[in-house]
Specification:
The structure holds 2 protein chains of 2 kinds. By secondary structure, chain A is α/β, with parallel strands linked by helices. Helices cover 23% and strands 25% of the residues of chain A. In chain A, the strands form 2 sheets. Chain A has a 9-stranded mixed sheet with strand order 2-1-3-4-11-10-9-6-7, with helices on both faces. Chain A has a two-stranded antiparallel ribbon with strand order 5-8. Chain A starts with a strand and ends with a helix. Chain B is α+β, with helices and mostly antiparallel strands. Chain B has a domain at 2-15 and 42-85: Phosphoribosylformylglycinamidine synthase subunit PurS (Mth169, Chain: A). Helices cover 32% and strands 36% of the residues of chain B. The longest helix of chain B has 16 residues, at 54-69. The radius of gyration of chain B is 16 Å and the shape is elongated. Classes of the chains: A alpha/beta, B alpha+beta.
């Protein structure tokens, strides 16, 4: 399998993503530059965290107009897995590939610390290797991570099982106090209607081995690997 | 074609959580400006635009807002076409 990590000007988690994908997944990981017009045959795409275009205008607003995003849109429309982490999530929302938006944290502060999130759905291609209800400890590092959407959109996300992760206490309780940024309904990660485009604010790629303080992010990569392997068998 | 000055005002959508506006409201109150409420912080985008008519300039500016300058999920915008400079 081959996985691509897109580098935008201002991306700063692209190497973390690359390293995590290489470590956990079998196969090849490559970098893709935002100006390219070709995904070079990758089986999955990562939009990494960072501050693409200096967060000018709004976080992700300019990056979503990068040339390579046309290819990413087509790839996603054809069912290809796309994972946007942190700034990548913001880019996917700005691109209209995921509903809603990420606005300034309720506290107005940039928050960089480990948080707990609960896996709400155990399903391919991103969370099949987690049991539903499992609590993960993963870092967040963002100033604009407060997820909002209109009430009907939030209701649809819930009804369709598209909320994959929610901020929670270490015991897995979803409480106001465990919500670091003010996100609606403690939402930390969602997928699109087809389930193949994931956006999440926490950083699983920074938690793939105990040396990093947590290996709770690794199963996300393993889930993706299992999905890609099954796709290859059925191809 | 004439040149138009375009002003685009982007503000947080009514009813949307606006922590920045809230913080500024608190700061203004602490300065002694009692009675301050409903503070919102947005941004102003100015640009010059070559167009055949004010209507065409308005039309183009609204399209710019929808596609880039404002996020319809979180922001409202309004467009002002100022004087045609020269020509």
């Amino acid at each position: 399998m081959k996985v691509g990590v897109i580098t935008f000007p201002g991306s700063n988690c692209d190497y973390d993503c690359y390293k995590a994908a290489q470590e956990v997944l079998e196969g090849e990981t490559i970098f893709l530059w935002h100006k390219e017009h070709d995904l070079r045959g990758v089986d999955a795409v990562f939009l990494p965290g960072g501050f693409s275009y200096g967060d000018y205008l709004r976080a992700g607003a300019i990056a979503q107009l990068s040339p390579i995003m046309n290819e990413v849109r087509q790839f996603a429309a054809a069912g290809g897995p796309v994972i946007g982490i942190c700034n990548g999530f913001q880019i996917l929302c700005e691109a209209g590939m995921l509903p809603g938006a990420l606005i300034r944290n309720r506290s107005l502060r940039f928050i960089s610390r480990p948080v707990h999130i609960r896996v709400e759905q155990s399903r391919p291609p991103f969370t099949s290797e987690y049991g539903a209800g499992r609590v993960l400890r993963v870092p967040i590092a963002h100033g604009e991570g407060c997820y909002i959407a209109d009430e009907p959109v939030l209701d649809a996300l819930e009804a369709e099982g598209r909320v994959l992760f929610r901020y929670c206490t270490p015991d897995g309780e979803v409480t106001e106090a465990a919500n670091p940024n003010g996100s609606a309904r403690n939402i930390a990660g969602i997928v699109n209607e087809a389930g193949n485009v994931l956006g999440m604010m926490p950083h699983p790629e920074r938690a793939v081995e105990p040396l990093l303080g947590s290996a709770d992010g690794a199963p996300l990569f393993e889930s993706l690997g299992a999905h890609l392997t099954s796709m290859m068998i059925y191809k | 074609m004439s040149d138009f000055q375009v002003e685009v005002r982007v503000v947080p959508r009514e009813g949307i959580l606006d922590p920045q506006g809230k913080a500024v409201a608190g700061a203004l109150k602490s300065l002694g400006f009692a009675g301050v409420d409903h503070v919102h912080v947005g941004r102003l985008v100015t640009l010059s635009l070559s167009a055949a008519s004010p209507e065409e300039a308005q039309h183009a500016a609204v399209a710019m807002c929808r596609q880039l300058l404002a996020n319809p999920v979180t922001e409202d915008f309004d467009v002002r076409i100022l004087e045609a400079a020269g020509s």
